[in-house]
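Q: Could you fold this chain for me?
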Amino acid sequence: MLALAGTSYSQGAIRLTWEVVKYDITATLPSDYSADRDLDVTAALAIKNISSSSFSRLTLRISDQAQVSSVTANGSNADFSNSPESTGGAKPLQRVVVSLPAVAAGQTTNVSVRYKLAVKENDGLASLSEAGSQFLPFSFWYPTPTSWFFTGGADFAPVRITVNGADGQSVFSAGSGTANTFDLPLNGQPFFVAGTYENTVVEGVEVAYPKRGSAGARPERVETLASIAKKADAFLSQRLGKSLGVPIRIICVKRGAGFSDSGTVLVDEAVLSRAQIDSSTVQNLAEGLAKSYLGNVIAVNDDGYGVIREGLSRFLANEFIETEYGEAVADVERLRQRTSYSAISDRDAPLNVVTPADGYYYTSTANKGSLIWGYLARSAGENFYSILKNESEDNSLTLPEVRSAFSNQKAYLDYTIDRVTEMNLMIGLPQKAGGSTKSALRNLGDIDANVVVTATTKAGNKIRTNVTVRAKNFGEAVFQTVEEIVRVEVDEHKSYPQTNYSDDVAPRIADEPDPVLFVKREFDRQKYSEAETNALAVLGRYPEFHDVRVLLARSQLAAGKVTDARSNFEKVLGSALPSAQSIAWSELGLGEIAKRTGQTAEAASRFRAAILADAEYGATLGALRGIVDSGGGSAGEDVKAFFSTFDKAVISNSKAQVDVLLAGGEVSRFSASVTGSAQQWVTDVRFAYDVDGVDTVVGAEVQLKLLNRDEESGVALFRISRTPSGLKLTSVDILEVG
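A: Sure. Below is the predicted structure, expressed as structure tokens.
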């Protein structure tokens, strides 16, 4: 719905000229993904002149990898020219300037662009492969008037998308679909995913997941994903007073997880293999559906739109997690977000001018934005959601409207939106003074801070007091109690974005902003007793922080405290919402314990689970070595034969012989690095695990010798896919030799 900039600038603002009324895109996949790396596209756009003048020139933006062959306007050939467009460090675009018959103010014209989009190497935004293809908006794969990096937001409009050439594969996008065509009535952005999928509808939610084949029946996780999405949708609908009106669709993908548009959310397919649903997946589902309301159902544009689309969506997702999983779990998610924000707080820009071209855009708008919405929610109390409903009643919501609706918080909003973060709140150790206890406060920020200061007594009771700490000044919190106070915390709810949160508490829990690094630093130094002490301190405040609990268990295991370690690893796997990383490390830890105690089958099962969790390099590498050191597992003869052929191809000095074994667009850098330099390459396959009916994870020992280097050996983890043209290598996840 949001429109184009006519590339007219006035005092830094872009004057809008064109508005996309509808996208109608037909994309054709290549028949040979190795020989042909182009997506063939015809994009028809209905575009309205929303200015007050007649215009005869249209500027479209598209990827610099697009080769435009023709443009028509209302069915007639139109002249056009191309030129590069810089995006300030982000991926470059190109401008396609089209000459049109004059379009009067308020009138609509139809423009069709025919082009080929080259995809040299696959990634999460754009991929072409027999193993699966996908194109997301930030690959800039379709032409549109307004830059994706415009401060007022990109173009959104109803979409019709047709994908041809996906023989034997399923195609998915947003909206209602039949076969290879999808129609979206909401204001969305064009995207599609194609691959070898099964899909099912559970509780009205469609879930698409890789075909299982020999890997078995539909995974139980499908029901869990659908249930979470349904609950999140009900939660959001009730609070925003809207309904999506389009199908909710979850697509399990290898890459691109976290993207969402108009009720369709991409999640990491590894969640299907994990022992437990993980926090990132739930956050992605809730946040993705929130963005479907805030951006697709409710139009969100104008300067600072990220505060709403990213920040309010994250706030709502956090609230949903607290409702479903409890305050302690949600507190950990908020802690992760604050930690992430504080890491970039000294280099971010004001929220009213930051754009996706800035590398910290999502970290800033989502995490700082969520803090702002938390403050507004607490200040407005039970009226908060009524205000949101009133302001978005016309299916539009802008930051100026938000600021007007919460005008009683003008000083706070001016500071947090229009300026960079400079505040740091500090609190001193509690000091007894007669029948009360006092703590000194300091505010390094430029505005007064109205905060809640919380004291925790030795008996575990909470005492709270409200204090105003003046800008660039000191203050004091006084607790009228005779109980012994053991800990104090300023701004318990973290209403104010800060550059450092570690000195909000006294005595300090950690001596650095990131609690995980606070523990891991000692673990990496092999000071396991100190690491255990630090972990227990963090868990005393955040008992559901499972990344820290895993470090506690690993420290205990390294120190020989096997029983304690086992208990903490099991506690992670039995918890309500662990992180994906903590799941993988817990599986690895339990595997190492089983290996030590001679439980070979249990160890192998745990190592396998850690690998299939696909969550963190270190955990995967540890599990790979654990299996190899234990003698390995089993692999089919077809897999062994594939790697025998692969070994010969690598030392043949023929890139063509290597490339024929690779899925189109995959591991091209690996191919280029070994071709011509490998003098010896031997892959000893030790195990092969079917992830689903298409993909297989292969672990191996490798011996190799590269040009001008000594012979080396080590371990490797490969992924291969079963395609119509045979087995193909899709990734080299690990290659550790020395």
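A (continued): The longest strand covers residues 13-28.
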